[in-house]
Amino acid sequence: MKPDVVSELANPRRSCLSVPASAPRLIAKALASTADEVIIDLEDAVAVSAKDEARDNVMSTLSGPVTADIHVTVRVNAPRSAWIAADVVALAGLPRLPHSIMVPKVEASDDLAMVGRLVEEHGGAGRPPIELQALVESARGLTSLAEIVRGAPRPEALVIGYADLAADLGRDPIAELWGPAHEHVLWHARSVGIRAVDGPWLGVHDDEVFRASVNRARTAGFDAKWVLHPAQLGFVNAAFAPTVEEIAWATEVVQALEAAGSGVLARDGQMIDEAVALRARRILASLS
């Protein structure tokens, strides 16, 4: 376990539950939920008048005991906002850092670099670097992904933010329109070996449409889904867990390659090469 991080987790991150930093009761409920990751939100979920109080809530929460079973992420305010420096400096001064910081409205690698510098300058020097997640919420962010994923520090994950992205594009956040954006985010995430996370479906009371959005993201190849309500966690966790058939297939592929002592072989009429092996290992890794 890293001594100065809330915990070092091995469990898969399938579900990411967002909660306003201005609501301590909801934060406590989220941390006791079945979410794999809890995102404590200092940005859009918090009114301007409550920014300072919300930041204090985060500091209080992360200064106390936090379950080792949940990955704790803090979404700070946007890089070009009036609150970003105060958010990051406060987090950097904690004796235990959150697992990751989600940076919203990322449009260039410099946005992540600025956050990384603030962490290091205000208490993070000499400690393991904190993970940064890049929340993509604009056309400029989408078209800058090649630069963002290859910048320093490299993001740990790319996340789609539908509400702001839809507003920037001048469209309704209708699920059927997001195929090209899904592919763009996924391709760039996979090109550097990082996670791709689907953003929240905003119609929280339409279970059928929500479930369709989860299945669409899972089928597309995303690693996780961001949700807005604890009632959505069970379906997301089940949807993103590998099936019994997938686990059996992946186990057989890895065992066959190890037994053959080769990176390529034919099995049951299928050529198994490094690309197939990578998918198999990814499935098995999601179980740990």
From TrEMBL:
Cofactor: Mg(2+)
Location of the HpcH/HpaI aldolase/citrate lyase domain: 14-230
Superkingdom of this protein's organism: Bacteria
Residues that bind substrate: 75, 137
Keywords: Lyase, Magnesium, Metal-binding
Residue numbers binding Mg(2+): 137, 164
InterPro entries: Aldolase/citrate-lyase_domain (IPR005000), Citrate_lyase_beta/mcl1/mcl2 (IPR011206), Pyrv/PenolPyrv_kinase-like_dom (IPR015813), Pyrv_kinase-like_dom_sf (IPR040442)
Name the record gives this protein: Citrate lyase
UniProt source species: Acrocarpospora pleiomorpha
